[in-house]
Amino acid sequence: MAETNLQVLLRRRPKGAPVPEDFEIVETKLPEPAEGEVLVRARYLSLDPYMRGRMSEAKSYAKPVELGAVMEGQTAGEVVASRAPGFTPGDTVLGGFGWQRFSCVSPARLFKIDPKEAPLSASLGVLGMPGLTAWVGLEDIGRPKAGETMVVSAASGAVGQVVGQLGKIRGCKVIGIAGGPEKCRFVTEELGFDACIDHRGDLNAQLDAACPEGIDIYWENVGGAVQAAVFPRFRDFGRMVMCGVISQYNTVEGADSFGGAPGPNLGAVVRKRLHIQGFIVSDNGWPRYPQFRREMLGHMAAGKMKWREDVVQGLRNAPTAFIGLLQGANFGKLVVQID
Ligand SMILES: NC(=O)c1ccc[n+]([C@@H]2O[C@H](COP(=O)([O-])OP(=O)(O)OC[C@H]3O[C@@H](n4cnc5c(N)ncnc54)[C@H](OP(=O)(O)O)[C@@H]3O)[C@@H](O)[C@H]2O)c1
Description:
By secondary structure, this protein is of the alpha/beta class. The chain has 2 domains: 4-125 and 307-337, Alpha-Beta Complex (Quinone Oxidoreductase, Chain A, domain 1), CATH 3.90.180; 129-283, Rossmann fold (3-Layer(aba) Sandwich). 25% of the residues lie in helices and 25% in strands. It has 10 helices and 15 strands. The strands form 3 sheets. Strands 3, 4, 5, 6, 7, 14 and 15 form a 7-stranded mixed beta sheet that branches. A 6-stranded parallel beta sheet has the order 10-9-8-11-12-13, sandwiched between helices. Strand 12 (234-242), helix 7 (267-271) and strand 13 (275-278) form a beta-alpha-beta unit. The chain is globular and about 65 Å long. NADP nicotinamide-adenine-dinucleotide phosphate (NAP) is lined by residues 48-50, 130, 133, 154, 156-160, 178-179, 183, 199, 221-222, 243-247, 279-281, 325-328, 330, 333-334. NADP nicotinamide-adenine-dinucleotide phosphate binds next to helix 2, helix 3 and strand 15.
């Protein structure tokens, strides 16, 4: 039987939390590469929180996915056929090919990677966009110094795991925040953070106990109640790296609200001379990817950078897995193995 393509489309825009009916799964004909294009078979798809933003029409830094179009996403796979110079069948590649098994892409959107360096799925997590996000945000905004105290929310997740371990490599005391005892145990025992706070418990009491000296760097992945508890604990000249506010993504008001939590008193920004900066990895991250990858492979070889993946089998299960990501159901970097 001839091979077909499998695609996940955006059927309608979610109101609040996405549901499976917001997606449509279709089988289509295998696409044919035009002159100058490459046909890629995806082996792994990365599921990431930003995709919730692409499902919405609200104004943002990137265009929404059109209704009826393939959901946007990073994939890793191999070249099946090539009509472009520099690529041959069997090459391992990384790129934004969407929630689909096959795609025709222009070489400008392809990164060739060496499959011997690390397992393929790692190039979507620790060695991929989330890892690069951690590295760029710390280099440019967090600027950790030895002896400083760093707090990282969503610490067991794709970005958080890398942020905290890079903080440890730079000599910081690192406190994670995660949902539940199992994730907290992983963060301290496997990743080597100094402590981990369960955000389902009393945040204030746990923060008092873990960082009585205050906080120099807060890596914000979550927003809402976690942000409200961390903010008053900043020390003078603290830095808040605004990476994401996942607790707000399904709220009707969107990411510009505090999701019912009290907003921070911004007077402290003046008094404590705080630096708060948001960033998007695609602003200036990808040109630095080769340097990032080299450094990370070095940390991995030295046993200083561990990673955990949550691998879901089959593209048809991508919508449910993505819905779970926005509620903390994943444990580690969420990827789909495409059958
Ligand atoms: N600025 C950028 O360029 C950039 C790039 C990549 C990612 N990001 C942002 O970085 C953050 C983390 O992304 P990731 O890919 O590493 O995801 P992730 O941490 O692997 O997965 C998301 C985690 O967020 C936590 N979470 C989900 N819903 C929550 C809620 N309502 N309240 C509190 N915590 C909740 C859960 O962890 P717990 O169970 O531990 O709570 C969940 O496992 C997101 O905000 C994302 O948008 C930004």
